């Protein structure tokens, strides 16, 4: 009896479906990687997606539960986007600088901007796809959902803003800090007196 112990014959070949899946995932990841530096273009594309979703919900006159769930998810992502990576309440080591004389440390988010954009875009795409299935169109009185979401938004943002004030951090930075130094005084030779 001969055993097939040679490595070449016992290797399993991947199926065409797994190869196609692998190729598509690599191309998708390549597109995501190329879109990373184009922040403005990504957010413009996201705005177009939100507009299309809003039009779909408006013309169908339904899917308010899907939209409410989407709103709760957006709120959860936004809070993670505004929060520091390490919560100052739970940290025993070095903290965010509180005085001007302390070392400048940039704000590091719990949820980076790219992941925030990606999660929002994916959520809107999923919600858009759900609007094509009638089983997700649960009849509800939408003003109650809107009012409850607004109360939830105001209360959580108030708590987040109080946290920002207490630990003195601002989650938004505009450009790199530049040291300007002391301005030199200019002495005019014509006005200086010479003996």
Mean pLDDT: 82
> Which secondary-structure class do the elements indicate?
mainly alpha
End-to-end separation in angstroms reads 116 Å
Radius of gyration: 27 Å
Parts with pLDDT < 50 across at least 5 consecutive residues: 7-11
- Helix content estimate: 55-70%
With helices defined by DSSP (H or I, 4 residues minimum), what is the helix count? 6
Q: What about the largest sheet?
A: none
H/E order of the elements?
Answer: HHHHHH
Shape category: globular
Number of strands: 0
Strand residue percentage: under 5%
Tags for this entry?
single chain, 195 residues, mainly alpha, 6 helices, globular
Q: How would you describe what is shown here?
A:
With 195 residues, the chain is mainly α. The chain has a domain at 38-89 and 107-172. Helices cover 56% and strands 0% of the residues. It contains six helices and no strands. The protein has helices at residues 7-10, 16-35, 39-60, 64-82, 113-130, 142-167. The chain is globular, with a radius of gyration of 27 Å. Mean pLDDT is 82; it is low at 7-11.
Structural topology:
Elements: H1 7-10, H2 16-35, H3 39-60, H4 64-82, H5 113-130, H6 142-167
GO biological process, one term: retrograde vesicle-mediated transport, Golgi to endoplasmic reticulum
Pfam families: Rer1 (PF03248)
Organism: Tagetes erecta (African marigold)
């Amino acid at each position: 009896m001969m055993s097939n112990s040679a490595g070449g014959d016992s290797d399993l070949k991947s199926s065409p479906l797994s190869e196609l899946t692998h190729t598509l995932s690599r191309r998708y990841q390549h597109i995501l990687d190329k879109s990373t530096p184009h922040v403005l273009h990504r957010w413009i594309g996201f705005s177009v997606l939100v507009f299309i979703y809003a039009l779909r919900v408006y013309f169908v006159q339904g899917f308010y539960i899907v939209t409410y769930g989407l709103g709760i998810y957006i709120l959860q992502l936004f809070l993670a986007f505004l929060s520091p990576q390490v919560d100052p309440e739970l940290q025993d080591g070095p903290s965010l600088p509180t005085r001007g004389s302390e070392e400048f440390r940039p704000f590091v988010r719990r949820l980076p901007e790219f992941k925030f954009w990606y999660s929002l875009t994916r959520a809107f795409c999923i919600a858009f796809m759900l609007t094509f299935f009638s089983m997700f169109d649960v009849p509800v009185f939408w003003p109650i959902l809107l009012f409850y979401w607004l109360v939830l938004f105001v209360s959580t943002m108030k708590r987040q803003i109080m946290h920002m004030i207490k630990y003195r951090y601002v989650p938004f930075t505009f450009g790199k800090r530049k040291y300007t130094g002391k301005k030199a005084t200019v002495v005019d030779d014509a006005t200086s007196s010479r003996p």
